[in-house]
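Worked Example 4.2. Consider the chain below.
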Amino acid sequence: MADAKKIKVTLAKGVACTRKDHRATVRGLGLKWTNHTVEVVDTPCTRGMINKVSYLLRVVEQ
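Applying the procedure from the previous section yields the following structure tokens:
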């Protein structure tokens, strides 16, 4: 997995007034607060999570 493609995901908006399952998805991506950035491995599972809460995120593919 050393050659696995990575994606930088940033939480652009707060999650205070969002649905519980969307908050759980954001937390599952490893994001904790607004403007927090993490690198995740590009898999179909993480792509689905990103698509679900795309209105809250900024994504940069590397």
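Residues 6-61 form a domain with the Ribosomal Protein L30; Chain: A, fold (CATH 3.30.1390.20). The longest helix spans residues 20-28. Compare this with Example 4.1 before moving on.
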